[in-house]
Amino acid sequence: MIPLKSQNELQMIGRSGRILSLVMRKVRGVIRPGITTLDIDRLSEELILKQKARPAFKGYKGFPAAACVSVNEEIVHGIPGPRVLLEGDIVSIDLGVNYQGYFSDAAITLPVGKIEESKKRLIDTAKEALDIGISRAQPGNNLGDISCGIQDFVEGRGFSVVRKFVGHGIGIALHEEPEVPNFGKAHCGPQLKSGMVLAIEPMINLGGWECRITDNGWTAVTADSSCSAHFEHTVAITDKGPEILTK
Q: For the whole model, what pTM was predicted?
């Protein structure tokens, strides 16, 4: 059962999303060579708490941090620590906010200093894939229209789409129905309706789509050690079209 949100719920999820957008803008401004992934996590948590909200990820199923910080071949769920970002790295920052029981979720991948052209194309493609997925989040479309749009675009650019991890419904809980794959067939799956809220999040790889989980039990990395990029927004489906709540 895919929950439909009331106007009041949408407004509260929107407030959560605006907090997350503010935090993400400030965090992205500090990304540079020499900063550690733990620095990113601490700043993220400090900024969320300053907005009288809570980090949605910290403690979720035992996750130890406020931010998922994934570098280069790490796809998602990177655990912050002493790792220093180096010139030429790319880093994905995934953040969630719980504001008075209403959840939002967003992710971005950023260059660390000057990066190779292939990494730049990877980041640009992931960002554009998110835009395409969002554009298909229209009442009357099917969930598969989002998935197919993302997959066709990404594979057309010569990259691969991660299969193991997908987007999800969000709002009253961090993860709700439905799952939102980044691969699939058009005109398939549940019909999209006004009031649904989805976390749409393409995760794409420079090499193959296969991945593995590292020894920490959380962090997913590409099986071939190629780089990965991840973008995400929380999106409300409305009669006027998709509304990005974390923009």
A: 0.97
